[in-house]
Amino acid sequence: MDWRAVNFDWNRARAFLVTAEEGSLSAAARALGLAQPTLGRQVAALEEELGVALFERAGRGLSLTPTGLELLEHVRGMGAAAERVSLAATGHSQDIAGSVSISAGEAYAAFLLPPILARLRAQHPGIRLEIVASNAVSDLRRREADIAIRNARPADPELIARKIRDDAARLYAAPAYLDRIGPVGGPGDLSEADFMGFDEGSALREALNAQGLTLTRDNFAVLSGSHLVQWQCVRQGLGIGVMPSVIGDADPAVRRVLPDMPPIVFPVWLTAHRELHTSRRIRLVFDLLAEELAAALGRGTA
Hints:
Layout: H1 10-22, H2 25-32, H3 36-50, E1 55-58, E2 61-64, H4 66-89, E3 98-104, H5 106-123, E4 127-133, E5 147-150, E6 160-173, H6 175-181, E7 195-197, H7 202-209, E8 220-223, H8 227-235, E9 241-244, H9 245-248, E10 255-256, E11 264-272, H10 280-298
Parallel strand pairs: 3-4, 3-5, 7-8
Antiparallel strand pairs: 1-2, 5-11, 6-9, 6-10, 6-11
Helix pairs in contact: 1-2, 1-3, 1-4, 2-3, 5-10
């Protein structure tokens, strides 16, 4: 290795990494305990040193340029290595045993997380996992969970968030129910159909009507605060329900309704409190979840 060719400043790289993960200079400065102008100078110096632009302005925040996105994974590796050095120096490099709680909506918790967590436990049996399966948003600041899977970026600047990717949900029903309501050739054929919902369907109704359906409150015949209960009702032929396609397509008891209709697309964010920066255990689980969820969701967007 030609050490003379290596003149990389880790402080500048760290400033870039934390800014990319936090989404703004102000949030990154708070995370690092630096003044925002100081952090901004470090990022600018790194861009000048490398001769590339790493960020573009996006409203009040920043977005990575293609070059910045390419460099981010390399710098994350540097950050992980720096953390391992710090932990080893303090005698905690192997101290990952303990509990991690993960909050997720019921559908993800029941269908997507188990195989991911099985791999995690096989690799790190000292980590104990608590799954908070709830469609309500857990309060990470109050330690209701260590890590949360959410469908919106948190507004709290004290939380760390990483967008995994967009997911796609579709309409599903049991074949017997579709046989009862007759041929479904287009959105207009569902005007009298029964739907599952958390409530009388205002948000879902608006999303579906925007795609050509003509649903009213009366279409939402079965209501439940539990997505798993809704799904079992769909499987038993009570009506039509919405489910991420990676889950719905894998269930042989149902089939897509209006398969040519565009899916309902929504973002998936992985969120954690700031202990992510200091806990190797939480960081390990966070990074594995990010990688595995991205792969799993990628199989269900078609």
